[in-house]
Amino acid sequence: MDVDSGSTRVGLVTFSSLVGSSFNLSDHNTIASMQRAISRLTYSQSGTNTAAALAYVRTTILTSEAGDRGNVLNVVVVITDGDSDNPNATKVRK
User: Fold this and answer.
1) C-alpha Rg value of the chain to the nearest Å
2) Could you say which DSSP state residue 74 is in?
């Protein structure tokens, strides 16, 4: 990803039963800064509330206040340790 040039912005959200640590799209403008932030994250056990994490991304991370650019395509990648606590709430709709 081309973070250092400003072409790519990265936000991050951790989640378990609750939404945890995060950083906004405009918080880190270098790969090194982003890697330092990621290395400070801690693993939280207890649940996999994917629906809450996706809702947080939609309402908090993908906003202009958090650094979203309306003229740039957003890509959300979900990495999880298991099944969603609420699979029906995380299904993709046509």
Assistant:
1) 14
2) -
pLDDT in tens, 30-78: 999 999 999 999 888 888 999 999 999 999 999 999 999 999 999 999 9
Q: Are 24 and 67 in contact (CB under 8 A)?
A: yes
Alpha carbon distance 67, 82 (integer Å): 29
Strands 19-23 and 12-15, by their bridges, are antiparallel
* DSSP per residue, 10-69: --EEEESSSEEEEE-TTS--SHHHHHHHHHT-----S---HHHHHHHIIIIISSGGGT--
Ordered structural domains, the chain, with CATH:
12-83 (3.40.50.410)
Structure tokens at 49: 């509330």
Please write the tens of the pLDDT for every residue from 75-93: 999 998 878 898 888 887 6
